UniProtKB/TrEMBL annotation:
Protein name stated in the entry: Protein EMBRYO DEFECTIVE 514
GO cellular component: chloroplast; nucleus
Coiled-coil region list: none
Bias (Basic residues): 195-206
Domain of life of the organism encoding this protein: Eukaryota
Compositionally biased tracts (Low complexity): 17-31
GO biological process terms, semicolon-separated: chloroplast organization; chloroplast rRNA processing; nucleologenesis
Length: 206
């Protein structure tokens, strides 16, 4: 065997065949594909867990329970009913007691969109009064500087725990209520008892 023949023979031995090269490429592609699929599956699982946690958190927020002041409320409707009943049971222009004062103060702090502005320098007393514009019973606060302001307990509750759609404040609700109540003005604070539907009170615009 000549030197040239030996060299040619060695080259044939070390040179990979086309079939072997193709098989190697397929193997590499397969590994990369599996790695990509594993990453995608992992991302899908993480997204799924994240989305589920987000949904669970939103449902928990909407359903409670929420501690407010001295009480714990299991739902927005339960919280609404508490303040609705207080609004209609408490005599007009009578300062609320210390217990209810704290409950309303906590409602403002946690539910009002601008609690610092509404509370101001401090609230001396809360009262139930008939709103001069909307002709409905409404919670009023008297600050330490003797300034007076009203607020909507319904909006505060809805901000803490979203109310059912039919119980939320409608833009035209106060105007409609004012028109319907004009002939009851002579009855004073007790006149608000005439409408016990959930959509009839919390007439404040703030």
């Amino acid at each position: 065997m000549t030197m040239a023949e030996a060299t040619a023979s060695e080259l044939e031995i070390v040179e990979p065949t086309t079939t072997d090269a193709a098989a190697a490429d397929v193997a590499v592609d397969g590994v990369e594909s599996n790695l990509k699929r594993t990453r995608e599956d992992s991302d899908d699982e993480e997204d799924g867990v994240s989305k589920k946690q987000k949904v669970d958190a939103e449902e928990k927020k909407a359903s409670g329970p929420v501690k407010l002041g001295f009480k714990s409320f299991a739902s927005s409707v339960e919280m609404f009913d508490y303040f609705y009943n207080l609004l209609h049971a408490w005599p007009a222009y009578l300062n609320l007691n210390q217990y209810e004062h704290m409950m309303l103060l906590e409602l403002l702090k946690n539910g009002h969109t601008e609690p610092d502005t509404k509370i101001g320098g401090g609230i001396r007393v809360f009262q139930v009064r008939k709103h001069p514009m909307w002709k409905s019973r409404c919670f009023f606060l008297v600050r330490d500087d003797e300034s007076v302001d009203d607020f909507s307990f319904r909006k505060c509750v809805d901000h803490i725990l979203p109310l059912p759609q039919e119980m939320q404040v409608r833009p035209d609700a106060n105007r409609a209520l004012g028109g319907a109540k004009k002939h009851h003005r002579g009855k004073g604070g007790g006149g608000g008892r005439g409408g016990h539907g959930h959509g009839k009170n919390g007439g404040s615009k703030h």
